[in-house]
Design brief:
631 residues; alpha/beta; eight-stranded mixed sheet; four-stranded mixed sheet; 19 helices; globular
């Protein structure tokens, strides 16, 4: 079959009709937490009767209410009653919709532009039939296709990229998986499950799905071994080990063996060891899984961008895709959405996570989420979690002094890159136009004693903890040629540091920091270092190193950038997309990867490096398994 595709979105009409001039309680669900996926003609009519057609914004009105403090208040039934209530509403984030009997996302009068209307499909160029249709061939989609094909089902995969330029994320390779045979052979032992779980719960504000995390912990290791079956690769014995073969692909354990000076139980933000990394990236691992899917009978159609699910009698029975040859219709008994995140859709980001707008990046445009919404699903409640972990400067995100653009210290620097990026959002923009354009919010400053100090820094993602003398560099050739692996040399630091100065005056001149303020802050910091207690921000004493031995080093900490946005379609534990405002599954529709909800919310924790890829793989396989079992 050639590259056929169809451009269509959804058959569902979000403008639900009811008696003109009224708005039912069931149609009033859109506060921050009740996601606004739909519009109601009823609401439009009611607003028109009140003289406010097209302008009455329920989201805006609800934001003024006193949530949850008057449980006996009369539930409003019209826009006028809502406006009149003002401070007497009873809605509360998350629970108020149920309290009033309101179906979340049942309507939105001012439907956001990014949601749009589902286009009507016509002029279908070609039609295919299959048991399981997978839309998107990233890591989750590849795992879903392999699992369904090995279950004996006829599988079609739609991939929007052209065949000659198809790739997965180029630098990605960290797999946070537990209990793979590779890890067992290396002697890697993870921390107890409860320690990891509790940290995930803490760092996501209690809004991660612990059942999902439990499933990941119990299955991800075997899933990884299954995913790379048939691949040819070398396994390095440690992070610093040199390669012994000429094989282009190899697996390296991350931060292994663990730093002897590191004890995760002492940390504010602990890092749990065990992650393994595919090198030079994860492309070869995905190719191994895809080749297995093809061997099992799966068919891949490149240049085919999924655009609209086909829904009949409230069941998803296929999808339309757009290709260079026209529109393709694929009839399927089950569909798995693996279309990525919505980070590259500025309007969706502004709507769901406006605090992330300063971060450049994002991978996908939210097409999978849109298809799911149009088919009757809904977005998970937030706050959605951006992956914005900073990778720092010449010494990574090591816990050295940081000064903002006014020359003032502003944080406990002993936190991971994700949290550094969050701290920076509150700091003033540089007055220098070039620095402001680059998003520089702070300078990391350390002195010439750094080679003996970094061994005391945290272990984990983004840190530099090992100094390699020049006469030993050849022994560390493989690790020194990698990125962010924790090993460095004097020459590497000298080359990658933005400013090196022999005096504080020279440092102020080259960084643009105000001299007197900078000097006062450094003097205060040095005083606390010698005192052995950080009375200002509470940094661990063993990482308090004074800045007093020239030359002085300064690294710009600019905008961290955003890799992906965690925030997806609400689903159950079978990975079936659920109907808008309910826990009832939409028959025939499954979801995995960054298109799914229920993984991480609030913030992206770097508790386990590679939890993104590890969980995408595991839930991609689970979605493929469940989709295949249902047909």
């Amino acid at each position: 079959m050639g590259t056929t595709s169809k451009h269509s979105w959804s058959r569902r009409d979000f403008l639900k009709g009811a008696a003109a001039g009224t708005m039912s309680v069931a149609a009033l669900g859109a506060l921050g937490g009740c996601s606004p996926q739909q519009s109601a003609s009823t609401a439009s009519a009611a607003a028109a009767d009140s003289g406010e057609a097209g302008t009455y914004d329920v989201m805006q009105e609800l934001s003024t209410f006193n949530r949850g403090q008057n449980a006996s208040a009369k539930a409003p039934t019209t826009p006028e009653e809502y406006i009149a209530l003002k401070g007497d509403g009873v809605l509360s984030a998350g629970g108020g919709c149920e309290q009033l009997g309101i179906k979340p996302a049942d309507f939105m009068l001012n439907k956001p532009a990014w949601l749009g209307d589902a286009p009507v499909v016509s002029d279908i160029a070609d039609t295919e039939d299959c048991d399981v249709l997978v839309i998107g061939m990233g890591i989750a989609g590849t795992a879903a296709a392999k699992e369904a094909a090995e279950a004996g089902k006829k599988v079609i995969v739609l991939e929007k990229q052209p065949e000659d330029s198809y790739s997965v994320i180029s630098m990605a390779g960290d797999f946070g998986v537990v209990g793979s045979q590779i890890q067992k052979d290396l002697g890697i032992e993870w921390a107890p499950k409860e320690d990891i779980f509790n940290e995930f719960v803490k760092e996501t504000g209690g809004r991660c799905d612990t059942w999902m995390m439990n499933y990941w912990y119990d299955h991800s290791g075997e899933d990884f071994d299954w995913f790379i079956e048939g691949a040819d690769y070398e396994v390095l014995e440690s992070t610093a080990a040199n390669r012994k073969t000429d094989k282009p692909n190899f697996i390296r354990p991350k931060c292994f063996p663990p730093l002897e000076t590191y004890n995760y139980k002492e940390e504010v933000y602990p890092y749990f060891h065990g992650t393994i990394t595919t090198n030079p990236n994860m492309q070869w691992a995905c190719e191994a899984a895809f080749n297995a899917a093809v061997a099992g009978g799966a068919e891949l159609i490149y240049n085919a961008e999924g655009e609209q699910l086909i829904v009949e009698n409230d069941k998803v029975v296929g999808a339309y895709a757009k290709t260079p040859d026209g529109y393709l219709k694929v009839n399927a008994k089950a569909v798995v959405l693996c279309c990525g995140d919505y980070g590259a859709n500025p309007e969706m980001r502004h709507y769901y996570a406006p605090w992330t707008e300063e971060f450049m990046g994002g991978v996908d445009d939210g097409r999978g989420q849109l298809m799911g919404i149009w088919a009757g699903g809904w977005m998970e409640l937030g706050p959605h979690a951006p992956m914005t972990h900073h990778m720092g400067g010449s010494l990574g995100v090591d816990s050295f002094l940081q000064l903002n653009m006014e020359g003032k210290r502003f944080m406990n620097e002993d936190v991971p890159g994700q949290n550094i990026a969050a701290e920076h959002t509150r700091q003033p923009v540089a007055k220098d136009p070039e620095l402001a354009k680059a998003g520089v919010k702070a300078w990391q400053i350390f002195d010439s004693k750094w080679p003996e100090q970094i061994i005391h820094m945290p272990d984990g993602h983004g840190y530099t903890t090992y100094f390699v003398p020049d006469d030993q560099a050849a022994e560390y050739e493989t690790v020194l040629s990698g990125f962010g692996l924790g090993y460095t040399t004097q020459a590497m630091v000298d080359e990658r540091t933005d400013v090196i100065a022999n005096s504080l005056e020279e440092l102020a001149e080259k960084t643009g920091l105000p001299l007197e303020t900078m000097k006062a802050e450094i003097e205060r910091y040095n005083e606390l270092c010698h005192k052995g207690i950080d009375e200002d921000f509470g940094k661990m004493s063993k990482r308090m190193f004074p800045v007093e031995n020239p030359p002085y080093y300064a690294c710009k900490f600019g905008n961290a950038g955003m890799l992906v946005m965690f925030g997806g379609l609400e689903c159950d534990h079978e990975l079936r997309v659920t109907k808008d405002g309910t826990n009832d599954p939409i028959p025939g529709l499954y979801v995995a990867g960054n298109t799914m909800g229920r993984r991480l919310l609030v913030d992206y924790p770097v508790v386990v490096a590679g939890i993104s890829l590890g969980s995408a793989l595991t839930f991609g396989r689970l979605a493929g398994k469940n989709a295949a079992a249902a047909v």
